[in-house]
Design brief:
Elements: H1 3-20, H2 22-28, H3 36-57, H4 61-79, H5 91-103, H6 112-123, H7 133-155, H8 161-180, H9 182-187, H10 195-200, H11 205-209, H12 215-235, H13 244-266, H14 280-295
């Protein structure tokens, strides 16, 4: 592989990460220099697959299936040590795979993980509701925990139990995404909150689709935030068994993402009128305390 092409590929992956995942990119900048490019490549793969399937969903299920098959074929090729050999939806997709071709020479990322990620992304094309939390957990694992598990192979870790905690962190982060984006998902006809939870708190599907905010909805949100919080709390136990040079980055990402839940609380749980996020100033101000905390791990 031409080194100039690899450089271009990694530069593209960083650009995508910086533009679409500000908190993720902010935390990643504290990684050792050699671990930053593969992490950007990891995010870029996730982003491309998600975006391309979302776009295809607007047209047909057949197009979504075709895109997934293209990615599978190319992943199979590079995992086998071959060149990217199939047509791709966009030229930029090739750059992502070129970067992956390089990182697979250095890191042992199990092939089943990106394939599981794709299964999760495809779910959005045909599953709009989840009856139970167990069902939602599988979705969260596929679209988020897999990312954490792949990142662990780049970060480095001391024991296999690290992967258990990485899975939990992925669940926590995806639950946070779901709670933050309830209002936006309604526009796409999606309700990720488990139907069993809606029934438990007396919230109807029609109420959410109409973006009606009341005390019942607040109680539902409190319950869901507490659930996500437990996963954050559990996942933090795994940071001390990661490589020392990545502990601060992972703890920072965990803290910044969990702050979104705090922001939802400060908005009185109304996620219909305002999207919860952390500002760059808030991120910068959080660094000293988290740095000291990470040093003690």
């Amino acid at each position: 592989m031409d080194k100039s092409e690899e450089t271009k590929a990694y530069q593209y992956c960083e650009k995508i990460t910086r533009h679409h995942a500000k908190s993720f990119y902010f935390a990643a900048k504290f990684l050792p220099k050699e671990k930053q490019p593969p992490i950007y490549a990891l995010y870029a793969l996730c982003r491309h697959v998600d975006d391309e399937i979302d776009e295809a969903e607007l047209r047909s299920e057949q197009e979504s299936a075709a895109i997934v098959e293209q990615w599978k074929e190319n992943l199979e090729a590079i995992y086998s040590g071959n060149e990217v050999n199939s047509r791709l939806s966009t030229p930029d997709s090739r750059l992502v795979l070129i970067a992956w071709q390089d990182i697979l020479q250095k890191y042992k990322i199990p092939q089943n993980l990106p394939l599981e990620l794709m299964k999760g992304v495809v779910q959005d094309t045909y599953i709009k509701r989840y009856q139970t939390f167990d069902e939602l957990y599988i979705y969260c694992y596929r679209v988020a925990s897999t990312v954490g598990l792949m990142a662990c192979e780049i970060f480095g870790y001391e024991g296999k139990e690290t992967l258990v905690y990485a899975e939990k962190l992925g669940i926590a982060m995806q639950l946070t995404n779901i709670l933050r984006d309830i209002g936006e998902d309604v526009e796409k006809g999606r309700i990720y909150l488990p139907q069993e939870d809606l029934e438990k708190f007396g919230v109807t599907e029609e109420q959410i689709l109409a973006k009606q905010f009341d005390e019942k909805f607040i109680n539902l949100m409190k319950f869901e935030i507490a659930r996500a919080g437990k996963y954050y709390q559990e996942s933090q136990k795994g940071i001390s068994i990661l490589s020392k040079d990545v502990r601060f980055t992972v703890l920072l990402a965990l803290r910044l993402y969990s702050k979104i839940l705090d922001k939802i609380e400060r908005q009185n749980y109304n996620v219909f009128n305002q999207r919860a996020f952390t500002t760059k100033t808030q991120k910068l101000l959080s660094i000293p305390k988290i740095w000291l905390e990470a040093k003690k791990l």
